[in-house]
Structures are given as C-alpha cells and as structure tokens.
Specification:
This protein is α/β, with parallel strands linked by helices and 506 residues long. It has one domain: Amidase signature (AS) domain (Amidase signature (AS) enzymes), CATH 3.90.1300.10. The chain contains 17 helices and 13 strands. A hairpin with a 3-residue loop joins strand 4 and strand 5. Helix 11 crosses helix 14. It is globular. The N and C termini lie far apart (59 Å). It holds the Pfam family Amidase. Keywords: Signal.
C-alpha cells in the first residue's frame, strides 16, 4: 500500500473519530432548535446522530412513559437524506427545522408507513389520501417525522370516563415528573415525550384545552393558535369551528420556530386558513422573541380563574411581571358570566356533538382504505372489539353525537349563544380594559379561548410539593399571537423555571 493511500485512510479514520467526539460533546438532552441548527451547520452533528439519540431515549423511556405510540421506521433513512442535502448545499437545508426530528400527534395524517388512528384500534391499517397540511409544511423544510405521539383516544371525545392519556392502542401514558399525576390530554404524548427528551419538538391539536392543559401538566410550552392560522386538513376532527394545530416544545423559542413553519394558507382548509392568513405578520413570529416583551403589556387577572389559593401560588410571578414592566389589571369580572358559563358548559358540547359527527364522517369517507366509514361504524366496532378497559370506559360521548342530525334549531341556538358570549364576555372585557392578554393558573382559560377560536400560550410556572408541574397561560383576541409571544417569552426569560424530569417518574 502506498504512503499516499495510508495517509488518505488515516485522514478518514481521524475524521470519523472527530465526528464521534464532536457528537459526544454535543449536549443532546434539553437541546434546542437553535443549538441543533448551529451544530448541523458547523458539521459538529449529523441528523443521523440526532435521530439515533432520540431513538435510544425512546427505547429507554417509552416502555414506562408510553408517550409515543409508533416510531417512524424510515426515521434514519430520512436523517441520512437530510445529511446528504446539507452536504450538497441544498436550498432546503437552509431552513432552521431542516434535519430536525418532529413528533406529531396520532390524529395528524402522515402519508408514510405510520398509522393515523387517534389512538383507536378501529383505524389501524387505514390509509390516508395524503399528508396533513401541517405535515406537508414540515416536510417542505426538511423536518424529519420521528413518529406518532400517543393521545387520549379520539381526542377525549369518546367517553366522559376515559382517563387523560389513555387509548386502546397503547394504554395509559404517564407524567414524566410524577407517575401518579394526571398527564392531561388529549395531546398527552406530545407533551410528555418532549418533556422527557424523547423528541426535540412536537405537534399537538386542541379543540378545548388539548394543547394548553398537557403543556401545563408536563412543564412544557404549548401554543394554541387562532383557529385557521394552521391547517386542519388531514387531522382527525372534532370540530372545524374549534380545532387547531400547534407546537409543544420545551422553550418558547422552539415553539415559535415550529409555528413559523406550520402557519399559512392551505387550499385543503379553505376558507379558514385564507381568513386567518391575514393575521400572519410580515417576517414571521420569531421577531417577537423580545427579552423586554413584558414592558407596558396590560395583563388581566380575573376572579373567574384566580381563587385566593391561586393568588398566593402565583403572587411571586405577579411581582416578576410588574418588575419587568407589565401592568397588571386585577379583580376583573368577565361580563355576562352566566351567559359565558352556559356557552362553555352547555352550548359548547351541544355544538361539538353535531360537528363531531359531521366532520368525522367526512374525514372517514375520504380515507383511501378503512374498516370504518362513519361514526356509527366506529361505535359498532367499539362494541364488538373492545379491550377490557374500554368496556369499562364506554363511549357515551360518541353515542350522544350519533343521535344528532346536522345543525338544527338546538345547535343554531347553541352557536348563537356562543357568539354572543364571546362578543359580550371575553371580547368586551379585553377591549374595555385595553388588555393585551388575560392570564389563568395552569390552562384554566382554555375553554374560554376554545369557544371563540382565540389563541393562547402556556409557559411552565412551577412545581407543587409533590414535584408535579404547573404552568401559566396567556390568552388573547384572534390574531394576537405576536403580543402573546412577547409576553410568554418575556415571562420565560424572567423566570427560567423549567427543569427536566427525573430519570424515572417519582
């Protein structure tokens, strides 16, 4: 062998050694999109190494936490593809999400080897016609679909007895901080998996609290966008009026990075995405990550959400918000409280029941292949093929929905009540008090935001005596994401409360 050949082989071996050393030096746990993007750009990390790390974490933690229902068998292939694109200086590789693994909730369609089932055995083997709108946007920038996050079956619209984070496919997901704590739902796996470092970032969906609540319960950041800001095409639905897709991440910055990618017009979700596209700021949302984002923001504290114990728990945060320049407007009363309560408790369920049947039937009819083509088929399947636990939990919500027959007089009255409650309740209070956001302990504001399609952001706010996490949520009027991001980021940077969960849940 010539001296030149020996030198060439030595250089290759040295290069491989350096790459492995650099990968070991990279801090995978709690890493952010920014850190990953820089490391990839500087050739200190490969997408394959990144995916291999998350696969190893899944193998180690998922048997206990049950946060991921299915891993993409092509994840490493997609990682190698991303690495090759980066080497060839592909224009796609310039994206900040390029080569980064993303976990998506199991009700978000992916046209690949993964199932899309909403946690239900009835949809195993079904074939979707195409990727969901948000998945298309992720793939367009070179993000890697790592797998499907577990969820409360049928997004908690199967039974009132169904525990948060439980489904017939995987069983019960656990909170990574405290095993006995409620992991919340329905985007349970998206929140628990990101919290436990089994994924870099994730997507969840929300109809009435399913992003904000699990984010609060698992000490992560969740953004529930204005309805229509992100496409719902290809998402197993509950209601076209309330459904939305949003990011669940460990930091506000990461959540905003993902939001920037998934917002925008989708012809398959018209006219909602066309209307909401007018809210998207020129230059995207990243520009609103301002360290002084709390300055001069008017934040509402309503006794509708904050009881005396909550005031004590969050008093330190109120002081921090004031120190950072926010103006806190307290003792607020939501106008027409009885009307608002009725809209949330009664009218919302009346409308959702009818919408669920109509929207789910439409979704199922468009599947390329499935053993169920209607809500009635799903109910029949559940009766003959239930795991033992599902016999106990039942399907009372589905049975009530099946009784509906479109939008009739009762539903129109419910929708009218919701519209009035929003206009003369939440919107009136926000405008009269010139509020930038209304705050709530945890995600208690979720239902109020849900009925009007308003946005909200949850940020980690602390841990109770048992170590169970809790958050704080900021909600605003439609299209107020830029302001909410400034507030959430300002709060996060002023507090830096989030800490990773223990190696094993307490």
């Amino acid at each position: 062998m010539s001296v030149l050949a020996i030198l060439f082989i030595s250089l290759i071996l040295l290069s491989n050694f350096n790459n492995k050393t650099e990968a070991k030096a990279f801090l995978f746990k709690e890493t952010t999109i920014d850190h990953i993007h820089i490391a990839l750009k500087q050739n200190k990390l490969t997408s394959r190494q990144l995916v291999e790390f998350y696969l190893s974490e899944i193998q180690r933690s998922n048997p206990i936490l049950k946060g991921i229902i299915e891993v993409n068998p092509d994840a490493l292939f997609l990682a190698d593809k991303a690495d090759q694109e980066r080497k060839s200086n592909s224009s796609k590789s310039l994206s900040r999400l390029h080569g980064i693994p993303v976990l998506v909730k199991d009700n978000i369609a992916t046209k690949d080897k993964l199932n899309t089932t909403a946690g239900s055995l009835a949809l195993i083997g079904s074939i979707v016609p195409q990727d969901a709108g948000v998945v298309k946007k992720l793939r367009n920038v070179g993000a890697i679909i790592l797998g499907k996050a577990t969820m409360t079956e049928w997004a908690a619209f199967r039974s009132t007895n169904l525990p948060n984070g439980w489904n017939g496919r995987l069983g019960q997901a656990l909170d990574p901080y405290v095993a006995s704590a409620d992991p919340s739902g329905s985007s349970t796996g998206s929140a628990t998996s990101v919290a436990a470092n089994m994924a870099a970032v994730a997507l969840g969906t929300e109809t009435a609290g399913s992003i904000l609540f699990p984010s609060s319960a698992n000490s992560v950041v969740g953004i529930k966008p204005t309805v229509g800001l992100t496409s719902r095409a290809g998402v197993i639905p509950i209601s076209h009026r309330q459904d939305t897709v949003g990011p669940i991440c460990r930091t506000v910055t990461d959540a905003v990075e993902v939001l920037d990618v998934i917002v925008g017009f989708d012809r398959d979700d018209f006219p909602a995405t066309k209307k909401a596209s007018t809210y998207i700021p020129h230059g995207g949302y990243r520009q609103f990550l301002k360290a002084d984002g709390l300055r001069d923001k008017r934040l509402g504290i309503s006794n509708y959400f904050f009881g005396s114990n909550d005031i004590k728990t969050y008093q330190q945060h109120f002081n921090t918000l004031r120190k950072k320049g926010a103006v806190l407007v307290d003792n607020l009363v939501i106008p027409y409280t009885d009307l608002v309560n009725n809209a949330i408790v009664v009218a919302q369920f009346t409308a959702l029941s009818a919408e669920f049947k109509m929207d789910l039937n439409a979704y199922l009819k468009h599947l390329v292949h499935t053993q169920v083509r209607s809500l009635a088929d799903v109910i029949a399947f559940n009766k003959i093929s239930p795991p033992e636990k599902l016999k106990e939990y039942g399907q009372d919500i589905m049975l009530e929905a099946e009784k509906t027959n479109g939008i009739g007089k009762l539903e129109r009255e419910a929708l009218s009540n919701i519209t009035i409650a929003c206009k003369y309740g939440f919107e009136k209070m926000m405008k009269e008090n010139k509020l930038d956001a209304l705050m709530s302990p945890g995600a208690d504001i979720a239902d109020l935001l849900a009925i009007g399609g308003y946005p909200g952001i949850n940020v980690p706010a602390g841990y109770d005596k048992t170590g169970t996490p809790f958050g704080i949520s900021f909600g605003g009027l439609k299209g107020s994401e830029p302001t909410l991001i400034e507030i959430a980021y300002g709060f996060e940077q002023a507090t830096h409360i989030r800490k990773p969960p223990p190696s094993h849940p307490q």
